[in-house]
Every structure is written in C-alpha cells, then in structure tokens.
Amino acid sequence: MTAQRRESTVREVPFSMAAFGGEQLRTQQVFSPAALVQQIPGITINTADKSLSIVAIRGNVSTFRTATLDTPVAYFMDDVYYVFNNDLNANFYDIQRVEVLRGPQGTLFGRNVVGGAISVVTNNPEMKEDYFGEVTGGNGGYLRTEAMFNAPIVDDKVAARFAFSTERGDGLINTPNQSGHYGQTEGYAMRGKLLFKPTDTLKIVLAGDYSYTTGNGGAIQLGIGGNQAIPASFGKFTNAQWTNNDFAPSPYSQRLRGFYARGDLDLLGGTLTAISGYRMNDSHAINDDVPVGTTTPVFDRRQDVRNRSFTQEVRFASAPNRLSYVVGAYFLSADVSTTNTFNYSPLSTSSTGTAIRPNPGVTNIVRVQSGNVRSIAVFGEATFKLTDTLAVVAGGRYTSDRKQIDYHAYSNTDPGAIAAFGFPGEVRASGGKTWNAFTPRFTVKYEPVRKVNLYATFARGFKSGGFVDNAYRNPTIPLEPEKARNIEVGAKTRLLDNRLDFNVSLFDQKTSNLQNFSGAGGIAHTYNGTLQMRGAEVESVLRITPAFRINANYTHLAGHYTSLRDPLVNVDYSGNPAKFAPHDAFSLGASYAYELKGGATLTPQADFSYSAKISTDDANTLRLYSNLYNKTEGKTLNARLTFESSNKRWQISAWAKNLTNNFQIVNADDITSFLAVPGRGATYWKIFTNQPRTYGLTVSLRP
To answer: What b-and-e string marks burial along 321-347, b requiring 16 or more CB atoms within 10 Å of the CB?
Structure first.
C-alpha cells in the first residue's frame, strides 16, 4: 500500500481503508469503480447518470454539476487527481491494486480530501517478456476484452507495457416505446507505459492513456409512489421493474485521455518522487424524464463537459528509521467548463405547468459555467518511535485554493422573465475567491504483540468553496468551504498463525459547511449545512485452509444533518438522516480451490452483499412510499466457477451476477412538480436502479 506515501501493509495504516489486488478484482469481475460497492459495504458509487457520478463514503456525497466545485470523495489514477466526478465512468484494466480510503485525507493524499478517496494504481512495465489476454461474453450481447503486452527494450534499462480493453453490451433495461434497450454501451480504452532505469538509483515512468465510451443512458425509469393508478396522459406506460418508458434515446459519449510522468530517485537514504499529470475530459449526456405519451419529455437535461487539468507533486520520503518523515508540495491548475441545457415541458395539470409552457410546449434555459481552479499546497508528516511498540505520528497540510468563474444563463424560447424560476432574462456574471486552510493529523500507534496494531487518530480535511448554484439569480455568491473533523480508533490484526485478518474501526466524523445540492422547487441550487456521522467498520478474512477462504465485512453508519435549511423553499431538514448512508451493510464471500488430478484446479466461489434502506434526498420523503423505499434495500448474490489448467496458463470461468434477480433502487429524484400537483395522492420519481441478472463465460490466457 502507498496510502501514506511509502510502501506499507494495510495493517500498518492508521485509518480505515479497504484494498484489493488487481488479480482479485479481475477474478470477481470488478471492471469499474461502480462495481466496488459489491466488495465494500456502506459506500455508494452510482454512475447510471452519465452526466453525474454519485459517490458517497460515510455520508459525504456530492450530487451537483457546478463547475469549480470539488467532490468530497476524490478519485486518483496513479496519484493523478481527476477533477470531475463523471470521470468515474472509466474502466479498470491492467490494474495493480485499488485502495479505498475512508474519512478525511487532509495531510499527504494529493488533493485535500474531506470524505474519502479512491486510488487506482496501474501496472508499470517490467524487465521481462509477459502478456495476458481475456475475453468475456454474457447475456444482453455483452462482450469484453482485455489484453496486455510487456517487453524489455534495452536489458535492465528500458521496458514497455501496452494494455487495452473493449466493452460493449445491448443493454438489459426494457424500452417499450423505442427500439433496442436502455443501458446499451460500447467503448474502448488503451494505455501505454515506458520505464527507464538509467541508473540503479533512478526510475522514470512515462505513460499515456485514451478511452472513449458511448451508449444509451443508464438504468433509469419512472417510479410512482402512493396512488398506483397510471394516469391516462402517460400513454403507453408500463409500470414494471427495469423498464424505461421514454420515447427517445438518451445518448451519451465521453472521451478521457491524459499523460503522466513519474520519477523516483534514491537520495540521502530516502526517495525523492516527482509526479506530473495532464488530464482531459470531454463528455456529452442527455437524460429525459418520462414523456407521458408524446415525444416531448417533461424534463430534458443535457450536459456538455470540457475539462483540462495539470497537476504536479514533489515529495521526499525518508528511509524507515526511528524518526521517519514525508514532506512535499502540490500544485493543481484546472480549466473547467460545463454547459447545462434544461428543456422544461410539464403537464398542464402539474404545479409547474401552470406557470410555464405545458407539454408538448418547451421552455428552454441554458447555463454556461466556465471556471479556473488553482491550488497550491505544502505538506509533511513525521513518525517517531518512542519504543519498539509505541509510535506517534504528526503532520499537516496547508492548502490555498483560488477559484474563478464566468457565468452565462439565457433562454432560447423565453428571452424575457420566467417568473416561475426567478429568471430575469439573460444573466452574465463573473466572480472569484481564494480559500486557505491548515489540516493537521495526529496519531498514536501501539503494537502490544506482533501483528496486532492499535491506533487512535485525529484528522481534519478541507474542500474549498465555490459559487452558489442557485439556477439563475446571482451565481457568484461564494459557497463556504467544507471542513471535516474525524476522530477514529481502531485495531488491525493478523491472528491464528496468519489465518485470520481482522480489522475494526470506530469513528466520529463531523462535516461543517457541507456543500449540499437540491432540486427542491424544480430549481437546481446549492447551500451549506452540517453533517454528523458516527459508525463502525469491520473487515475480516479467514483462511481455514490454503484452499478455503472466507471474507466478511460490515459497516454501521449513524448519521444525520445537525443543521440543514434550504433557503430557496425555506424548509429545515435538520435531524434528517444522511443521504446514501445505509444504517447497516455487510458482505460475505467464500471460495474453495479444489485440486484435480493432474494439477488443475476447480474453484467455486460466491459472495453476498446486503445494504439497508437509504434516504436519497434531504427531505427523506421516499420513506413515505413503501413500494419504492423498500426497494432501496440491496440484496445481491454473485457466483463463479473457475477451472484453471495445471500449467496455470488457461482459465475458464462461468459466472452470474445478481443471481436472484433482486431489483434495487440506488437513487431517486422527486419530479412530481412536472407531472402533478404535490400532495394529491401520488408522487413521481425518476429512479436509478441496479442491473438485472447477468451471466456468461470468461476465458483468459497468460504465459
């Protein structure tokens, strides 16, 4: 692990985290960040809305599309920060490991982090010839390929590695009003790396990557709460699971690419590391809400993103000693641009339809946000061993973030005032502000016996402010920065003659000035609040025999908003539960490698994950409609049977995901105001769901 900027084990890291090796992820078919939720209870990663990825750890979540605002859960690839949350649509391929860090990481970890971080590390070239190939086919026209080639160019001096992945599927969501299926996707990704070792003390890695993905939406449909009668105005509407009733496709496309350079120099007994990264994100997405019997949706959202970012980090890690330390500096410059196009066409009988053009008429509003983010930080952390079993850790990070934004809002259909949205016609505005913060971390580590590590940590995190997304009024009002405080105690152990790994953590985390997004009143807007979260996280692996392995993980979250008042609709949500934070969640898995005659192995494995019902909005009104709320409970069973040849070159696997075909709602937005008058017997929700049962075969080959 490198979560502390030096190689260590999970057991040595004094905060809660989960880590997965690349082979483990491949075997369990974790091909994307979203698939991690089956392995890590209590977290949310939902990429069904291709214009917005929802990522939550310990209740810290962002659901906004505002330029310059950072996400509370950061995503890194090879230590390079990805500035926009829909970057999480990227695939995993040729991965060395994935680390998921829980809680604020305000000291050493790249961009200052409030809620947690997902860090992906890809494989570097090696001084040997190597290759790998894999083909996966499944129902719904699913086909995925992955391959890797590695070779030395100059013996012991230069090596190259190239990897690629392709993925396509016809989609599994029924679409009675259009051809094909919702969820159709097609894409490819590639990465090339060069390793230079000019001396025994210097290692340089240069890399470039490119990916392109296109398709037809994610798992989105309409859910009806309360009175289940289908209004006649909904036309050819099917109220069934995994069914999208739109008359028109919701296409999306995304192009990600970047360059990366890293140098590691052995110096003064330690290592000097420099990392430079340049990332580009161009994406386009359309999401329609149900068009109720016409080709005009009641709410059509379109988003175009164009981001460019450069990061530079330099750090020095001393050699392990009684006193060891890490010091460094970090720089980020990002140009971010987001164009949101909203086409409103509510029913004439709805609350919104009485104020603007009703369906099939269209009221259009366009918002263009262009911003620049510049961040400079210096950091350091030192570990001092008081005795062979007791150590103290102290560190801190000073961050200075400057953000600027240019805002332009206008309407192509109603250039005058639109009173229903408080839009005074065309708006142009510019603003800028700088935020500074110091975030310390203090830890006491104690090893009473070998391979039993106890720790207590106090840490702070910081996420700089931005500008209020209040639709069309004054978009240059600063939004206060988030500040997180976390107190955590835990134990990380390896027991029973290395057969049992058992890690447990208890935490108390408070996030002040929570940057919250809401669509209440039919208008997108942001405002600040306070989140209090307490809980426990347990991770364990039991190796009953070398061939028989059981893993069990559990998360308990008890969080609520201690202060949260929506100024637009003047409603106080204080006391409501945190969004996307299941009270209880667990995962349980087992595998057994049975050796056949001749040396081949046959390995059956299965895993089951459970998560309790969740709140998906500030008002927590979904709980009032049991037919929808009960479906936010997750119960997923996966199974796999793998045959591996005696020479370890071939693997053939039969697999199934969501074996019991359990239907789950992972997010829900209330859109009643576009279809009816609220409070009259029914509510209407745009819901994002899991995928139905999938199954197939995987064949892989290695030397």
So the answer is: eeebbbbbebebbbebbbbbbbbbbbb
Beta-bridge partners for 372: 335, 404
For residues 110 and 116, the answer to whether their CB atoms sit within 8 Å is no
Token pair in block for residue 592: 């057994």
Give the integer Cα–Cα distance in Å for 586 and 612.
9
Provide φ and ψ at 621, rounded to 5°. Answer: -80, -15
The total number of structural domains that make up the chain? 1
How far is the C-alpha of 120 from the C-alpha of 117, rounded, in Å?
10
Of 426, 431, 429, 427, give the one whose Cα is nearest residue 414: 426
Amino acid (one-letter) located at 286: I
Tokens of 156: 């012991």
The answer to whether 395 and 370 are in contact (CB under 8 A) is: no
- 239: nearest Cα among 226, 252, 254: 226
- Cα–Cα distance for residue pair 26/34, rounded to 1 Å: 14
Is residue 285 in some structural domain?
A: yes
* Secondary structure of residue 453 in the 3-state scheme: strand
- Asked if 261 and 209 count as a contact pair (C-beta separation under 8 A), the reply is no
Question: Please, are residues 71 and 79 in contact by the beta-carbon 8 Å criterion?
Answer: no
User: Would you say the pTM of this structure is higher than 0.70?
Assistant: yes
pLDDT of residue 262: 97
Q: Classify residue 22: in a domain, yes or no.
A: yes
Q: Is the Cβ–Cβ distance between 558 and 531 less than 8 Å?
A: no
Give the C-alpha separation, 522 to 471, whole Å: 10
By three-state DSSP, how is residue 481 classified?
coil
Which whole number is the average pLDDT over 636-643?
96
Q: What whole-number distance in Å separates Cα of residue 131 and Cα of residue 141? A: 27
Neighbours of 516 (CB within 10 A): 24
Query: Position of tokens 């030192």?
Result: 382
State the pLDDT at residue 30.
86
Is pLDDT larger for residue 272 or for residue 567? 272
Alpha carbon distance 238, 372 (integer Å): 45
Lookup: tokens for 155: 């013996």
Find, among 137, 10, 33, 21, the residue nearest to 82 by Cα.
33
Residues 6+ apart with CB under 8 A from 391: 383, 384, 385, 444, 445, 446
Q: What SS3 string covers 575-607?
A: CCECECCCCEEEEEEEEECEECCCCCEEEEEEE
How far apart CA 451 and CA 577 sit, in angstroms, is 38
> In what helix (H) or strand (E) does residue 156 lie, and over which residues does it extend?
none
CB atoms within 10 A of CB 264: 16
**Ranges 25-29, 221-225, 243-247, 530-534, most confident:** 530-534
Q: Is residue 334 part of a domain?
A: yes
Establish if 551 belongs to a structural domain: yes
* 475 pLDDT more than 90: no
Q: 643 vs 20, 546, 616, 697, CA distance in Å?
A: 22, 17, 42, 11
The domain spanning residue 357 has which CATH number? 2.40.170.20
154: Cβ–Cβ under 8 A, 6 or more apart, which residues?
A: none
Beta-bridge partner residues of 548: 592
What's the maximum distance between 2 C-alpha atoms anywhere in the chain?
Answer: 80
**pLDDT tens per residue, range 65-114:** 677 888 888 889 999 998 876 667 678 999 999 999 998 887 877 678 88
Q: Domain of 498?
A: 10-701
